[in-house]
Specification:
This protein is mainly α. It is about 60% helix and about 10% strand. The strands form two sheets. A three-stranded antiparallel β-sheet has the order 1-2-3, with no helix packed on it. The chain has a three-stranded antiparallel β-sheet with strand order 4-6-5. A hairpin with a 6-residue loop joins strand 5 and strand 6. Helix 4 packs across helix 6, helix 7 crosses helix 8 and helix 9 packs antiparallel against helix 10.
């Protein structure tokens, strides 16, 4: 039975559609179906599926004497366990089944998968489980973004990694792009995946550098700020503060910090008069065009 068969059978037994499963794990049906067809669902994604469907999951080696060494849902991905709890190993390896997942695991790291021993308090164990759960979700989300970028670039994983090995500057840039995903609004994942895919796809060094700068410039933006840029762009490149407030449905006073942040980033500039009118600058225009093309 393949991984794809396992997941489909599990959905049938839990009486949910594959589309609903995708929603729960934060992936698009289109992207997840590609993984199912290629059998590239990562270990951490399997653990996440088990978590959202409230089922157990184990991947084990069974030794000749019957002892088991493997991975179980309760200890999260990367945690080795043995049936004899007194022989639990503190040595762990971050194992994933996809190239993108492996890359993300190395880049953003995570809590070391050492099992909390009997000397710790129940509260400490709960805190450990909470951090592991949060880290699992974060890694699964970022892995999904990078995998989307790999697939949409039209290049093979092997081709991408060969270029990274041969070009240290590009390696530094792609790692930086992945690290920035930790601090981004999940609602903008499509935008970041699109920028990364374009950067991987292009053979033009100047275009790639432009995309790297664009990616860096939108780090930390939230959905409301992206809407502001889009609405200004859709209205000819300038829009009054009053109309921006109405369009994003946020009071003008409460919107001030978000707008000023865009100004400090060099994306918009006001007219210096009352009533205030905001206009896109060159960087803001580039971001707006990227948003428009990717339909974020």
């Amino acid at each position: 039975m393949t991984t794809s068969d396992m997941i489909r059978q599990l959905c049938e037994k839990k009486n949910i559609s594959l589309a609903e499963l995708c929603r729960r794990i934060g992936q698009t049906p289109q992207n997840f179906n590609k993984k199912l067809k290629r059998n590239t669902v990562s270990l951490e994604e399997m653990m996440l599926i088990a978590e959202v469907l409230d089922v157990g999951y184990e991947q084990v080696f069974i030794l000749s004497e019957g002892e088991k060494v493997g991975i179980c849902k309760e200890m999260k991905w990367g945690d080795f366990y043995m049936e004899d709890k007194n022989k639990i190993s503190s040595q762990v390896t971050d194992v994933t089944l996809s190239a993108a997942g492996s890359l993300v695991g190395f880049v953003i790291g995570g809590p070391i998968g050492a099992v909390v021993g009997s000397a710790t308090t129940p509260t400490t164990k709960l805190a450990y489980q909470l951090i592991c759960s949060w880290n699992d979700r974060r890694k699964a989300r970022i892995t999904n973004i990078v995998e989307q970028a790999f697939v949409n670039s039209g290049r093979s994983d092997e081709d991408i990694f060969h270029e990274l090995l041969e070009n240290s500057e590009w390696t530094d840039s792609i790692i930086s792009m992945i690290q920035q995903l930790v601090f981004t609004d999940p609602e903008l994942d499509g935008l970041f995946a699109g920028i990364m895919a374009s950067a991987i796809r292009t053979g033009d060094e100047h275009e790639r550098n432009r995309l790297i700068v664009l990616n860096s410039s939108i780090k930390g933006l939230n959905k409301v700020q992206v809407l502001i840029i889009r609405y200004i762009y859709d209205n000819g490149g300038k829009l009054s503060a009053v109309n921006i407030s109405k369009m994003v449905n946020v009071p003008e006073l409460e919107l001030r910090n978000a707008v000023r942040d865009l100004e400090l980033r060099g994306m918009i500039i006001d007219n210096g008069e009352e009533p205030t009118v905001w206009k896109l600058r060159e960087l803001g225009l580039a971001v707006a065009k990227a948003i428009n093309v990717l339909e974020v």
